[in-house]
């Protein structure tokens, strides 16, 4: 297991180098550059343009810029935003908790509903319940997220007025951000109603963000469960006289979870990378929205280092998923 | 009174092409402490009839029986919950593929302890002690360290011993062994069979041994029931069966033993067991039978006890017994 982990960690190094090349190249391939975009529609004189490019160092050959970027990275310098002049790293860590909070709430909701729904569908295979669950999952999976988010806002915020439209907490409350997680900070602040307000703000984004992972988890649980229920060891478990609940909930579930964990891991990875659509719809101040804004401003340092940080998070999550794998499946642990 | 008494058991499977009859009016009786062997090639309904009795068939199976009694309890009448108290305790079963029959995600100790907790209500310490005893009984060396092993860390033979230990955990009155040695090495096969027979004697339990291997039958069984295409075609004591088989199918099975081969080619029975769509009328074995006559395609008669209850119009070796 330790050897396996070391190997996985060593493999991260070439992956990182690959990502730096891609993230560095990607934003420079886009038409336009930060200077032009900052100038806006007023335009800019040739001399001023050249001077600004030279100031940022973007007039040098591409490989020189890349090597300098790598050198800075190795010194722990992720660069400063061209727009806000803030260090990319500190911007990232200010915004990241918001994304994590939303992503965790969404994935918990998806797991708590998705896995039981998949199990029920599998054990009642072919029944009306199975078809209803799988039909709903298919609808959820196929739903355009943008449309779904707006629909929920219209119904629950607009018509019914139950939930707020955007943001993380009502403007009435103001307190110091200690952890960056609004649910925890609002509790720590001790202000009456702050926590309830934070929860209210989370409900709709969580539902919207959880919809696709929930559908995927439910479908994956069902198919894995169906496969496992036909295995010999499930027959053995039943031959012992175990109740259906123990057979399904202990013997089958543990084995069926192996592919489901992969799906959950992949979802967590993508959700942590910032739910671009959801964060945009609900003006959620997370890294998804941050990336989108930076790309439209061609804020080179933010895009290239931001992508790198997001990739690092996805890789760490994947590594954790592989470790969980080993915990659940002893055959992998002993290899 | 016998331990197990099944009369006229039929099992039909709902398939896309209509009902498929896997077991066709089979009778099975087994006395306490007896070894009964059920023989037949693949698809003859041997396992299905046993699984039906255990209640382990999928819901697509339709089970009908005139009588299905085990240890004085009517298995057709009891609820699922009551049946779960019997299976795994008084009536236990082991299967063909020991490695896939054990759950890969749980240790041997957990899987053994589960039965002990369920049926005997033992606590943790008692379970551990009893598990070690059980593993010792089935001849597993260093049983204490084996408790924390996972099935994939043990060999096929060891896994089958674990399966046997699990089956014996509730001191069953009947152990059903469904081709217990088919997936194992030849040398291990003999060990497992010896173990089963010695445990059967020691515990005075009944053993139903399902197999397609006549060699296994000769070594272990007392009474033999031959099944073909879901029907019971012959039943005899093992010595009589080997010297004077009455049903042509039994005789053909015996001739197919490698030990009886003359020349370089292994003898076999031509054709395959009829399936859902090619079930003949009359005697089901007629299309493959070397002794087939015209009336075999009509009504088939069940012969007397003296002729092994053979389901055949023209039983073999009739003059010897008569």
TrEMBL record, chain A:
<keyword id="KW-0813">Transport</keyword>
<dbReference type="InterPro" id="IPR000515">
    <property type="entry name" value="MetI-like"/>
</dbReference>
<dbReference type="InterPro" id="IPR035906">
    <property type="entry name" value="MetI-like_sf"/>
</dbReference>
<keyword id="KW-0472">Membrane</keyword>
<dbReference type="InterPro" id="IPR045621">
    <property type="entry name" value="BPD_transp_1_N"/>
</dbReference>
<keyword id="KW-1003">Cell membrane</keyword>
<feature type="domain" description="ABC transmembrane type-1">
    <location>
        <begin position="96"/>
        <end position="321"/>
    </location>
</feature>
<dbReference type="GO" id="GO:0071916">
    <property type="term" value="F:dipeptide transmembrane transporter activity"/>
</dbReference>
<feature type="transmembrane region" description="Helical">
    <location>
        <begin position="9"/>
        <end position="30"/>
    </location>
</feature>
<dbReference type="Pfam" id="PF19300">
    <property type="entry name" value="BPD_transp_1_N"/>
</dbReference>
<feature type="transmembrane region" description="Helical">
    <location>
        <begin position="198"/>
        <end position="218"/>
    </location>
</feature>
<keyword id="KW-1133">Transmembrane helix</keyword>
<comment type="similarity">
    <text>Belongs to the binding-protein-dependent transport system permease family.</text>
</comment>
<dbReference type="GO" id="GO:0005886">
    <property type="term" value="C:plasma membrane"/>
</dbReference>
<feature type="transmembrane region" description="Helical">
    <location>
        <begin position="260"/>
        <end position="287"/>
    </location>
</feature>
<protein>
    <submittedName>
        <fullName>Peptide ABC transporter permease</fullName>
    </submittedName>
</protein>
<keyword id="KW-0812">Transmembrane</keyword>
<feature type="transmembrane region" description="Helical">
    <location>
        <begin position="95"/>
        <end position="121"/>
    </location>
</feature>
<dbReference type="Pfam" id="PF00528">
    <property type="entry name" value="BPD_transp_1"/>
</dbReference>
<feature type="transmembrane region" description="Helical">
    <location>
        <begin position="307"/>
        <end position="328"/>
    </location>
</feature>
<feature type="transmembrane region" description="Helical">
    <location>
        <begin position="133"/>
        <end position="156"/>
    </location>
</feature>
From TrEMBL, chain B:
<dbReference type="InterPro" id="IPR013563">
    <property type="entry name" value="Oligopep_ABC_C"/>
</dbReference>
<keyword id="KW-0547">Nucleotide-binding</keyword>
<keyword id="KW-0472">Membrane</keyword>
<protein>
    <submittedName>
        <fullName>Dipeptide ABC transporter ATP-binding protein DppD</fullName>
    </submittedName>
</protein>
<dbReference type="InterPro" id="IPR003439">
    <property type="entry name" value="ABC_transporter-like_ATP-bd"/>
</dbReference>
<dbReference type="GO" id="GO:0055085">
    <property type="term" value="P:transmembrane transport"/>
</dbReference>
<keyword id="KW-0813">Transport</keyword>
<dbReference type="Pfam" id="PF08352">
    <property type="entry name" value="oligo_HPY"/>
</dbReference>
<dbReference type="GO" id="GO:0015833">
    <property type="term" value="P:peptide transport"/>
</dbReference>
<feature type="domain" description="ABC transporter">
    <location>
        <begin position="6"/>
        <end position="254"/>
    </location>
</feature>
<dbReference type="Pfam" id="PF00005">
    <property type="entry name" value="ABC_tran"/>
</dbReference>
<dbReference type="GO" id="GO:0016887">
    <property type="term" value="F:ATP hydrolysis activity"/>
</dbReference>
<dbReference type="GO" id="GO:0005524">
    <property type="term" value="F:ATP binding"/>
</dbReference>
<keyword id="KW-0067">ATP-binding</keyword>
<dbReference type="InterPro" id="IPR050388">
    <property type="entry name" value="ABC_Ni/Peptide_Import"/>
</dbReference>
<dbReference type="InterPro" id="IPR027417">
    <property type="entry name" value="P-loop_NTPase"/>
</dbReference>
<keyword id="KW-1003">Cell membrane</keyword>
<dbReference type="InterPro" id="IPR003593">
    <property type="entry name" value="AAA+_ATPase"/>
</dbReference>
<dbReference type="GO" id="GO:0005886">
    <property type="term" value="C:plasma membrane"/>
</dbReference>
<comment type="similarity">
    <text>Belongs to the ABC transporter superfamily.</text>
</comment>
């Amino acid at each position: 297991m330790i050897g396996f982990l070391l190997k996985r960690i060593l493999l991260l190094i070439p992956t990182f180098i690959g990502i730096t090349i891609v993230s560095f190249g990607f934003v420079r391939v886009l038409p336009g550059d930060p200077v032009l975009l900052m100038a806006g529609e007023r335009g800019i004189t040739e001399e001023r343009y050249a001077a600004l490019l030279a100031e940022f160092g973007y007039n040098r050959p591409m490989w020189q810029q890349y090597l300098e970027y790598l050198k800075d990275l190795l010194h722990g310098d992720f660069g400063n935003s061209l727009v806000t002049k803030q260090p990319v790293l500190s911007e990232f860590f200010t915004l990241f908790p918001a994304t994590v909070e939303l992503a965790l709430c969404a994935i918990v909701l998806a797991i708590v509903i998705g896995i039981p729904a998949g199990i029920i569908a599998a054990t009642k295979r072919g029944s009306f319940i199975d078809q209803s669950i799988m039909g709903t999952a298919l609808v959820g999976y196929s739903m355009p997220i943008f449309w779904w988010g707006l629909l929920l806002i219209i119904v629950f915020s607009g018509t019914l007025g139950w939930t707020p439209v955007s943001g993380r907490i009502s403007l009435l409350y103001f307190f110091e951000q200690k952890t960056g997680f609004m649910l925890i900070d609002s509790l720590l602040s001790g202000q009456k109603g702050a926590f309830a307000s934070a929860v209210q703000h989370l409900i709709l984004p969580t539902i919207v963000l959880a919809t696709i992972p929930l559908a995927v988890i439910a479908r994956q649980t069902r198919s894995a469960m169906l496969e496992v229920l036909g295995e010999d060891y499930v027959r053995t478990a039943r031959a012992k006289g175990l109740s259906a609940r123990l057979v399904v909930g202990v013997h089958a579930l543990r084995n069926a979870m192996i592919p489901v964990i992969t799906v959950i891991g992949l979802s967590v990875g993508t959700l942590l990378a910032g739910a671009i659509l959801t964060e945009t719809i609900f003006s959620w101040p997370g890294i998804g929205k941050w990336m989108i804004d930076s790309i439209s401003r061609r804020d080179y340092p933010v895009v290239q280092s931001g992508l790198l940080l997001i990739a690092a998070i996805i890789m760490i999550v994947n590594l954790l998923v592989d470790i969980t794998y080993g915990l659940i499946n002893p055959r992998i642990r002993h290899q | 009174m016998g331990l197990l008494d099944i009369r006229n058991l039929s099992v039909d499977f709902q398939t896309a092409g209509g009902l498929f009859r896997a077991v066709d009016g089979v009778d099975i009786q087994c006395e306490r402490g007896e070894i009964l062997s059920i023989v037949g090639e693949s698809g003859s309904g041997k396992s299905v009839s046993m699984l039906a009795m255990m209640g382990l068939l999928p819901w697509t199976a339709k089970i009908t029986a005139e009588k299905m009694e085990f240890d004085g309890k009517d298995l057709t009448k009891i609820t699922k919950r009551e049946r779960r108290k019997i299976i795994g305790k008084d009536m236990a079963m082991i299967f063909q593929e020991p490695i896939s029959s054990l759950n890969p995600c749980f240790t041997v100790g957990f899987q053994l302890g589960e039965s002990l907790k369920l049926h005997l209500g033992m606590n943790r310490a008692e379970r551990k002690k009893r598990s070690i005893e059980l593993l010792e009984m089935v001849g597993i060396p260093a049983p204490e360290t084996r408790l924390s092993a996972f099935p994939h860390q043990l060999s096929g033979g060891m896994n089958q011993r674990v399966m046997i230990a699990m089956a014996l955990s509730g001191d069953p009155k009947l152990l059903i062994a469904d081709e217990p040695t088919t997936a194992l090495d030849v040398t291990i096969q003999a060990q497992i069979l010896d173990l089963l027979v010695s445990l059967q004697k020691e515990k005075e339990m009944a053993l139903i041994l399902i197999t397609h291997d006549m060699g296994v039958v000769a070594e272990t069984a007392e009474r033999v029931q031959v099944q073909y295409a879901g029907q019971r075609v012959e039943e005899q004591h093992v010595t009589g069966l080997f010297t004077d088989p009455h049903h042509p199918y039994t005789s053909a099975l015996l001739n197919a033993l490698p030990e009886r081969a003359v020349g370089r080619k292994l003898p076999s029975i031509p054709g395959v067991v009829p399936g859902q769509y090619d079930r003949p009328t009359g005697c089901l074995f007629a299309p493959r039978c070397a002794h087939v006559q015209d009336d075999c395609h009509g009504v088939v008669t069940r012969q007397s006890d003296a002729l092994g209850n053979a389901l055949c119009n023209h039983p073999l070796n009739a003059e010897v017994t008569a």
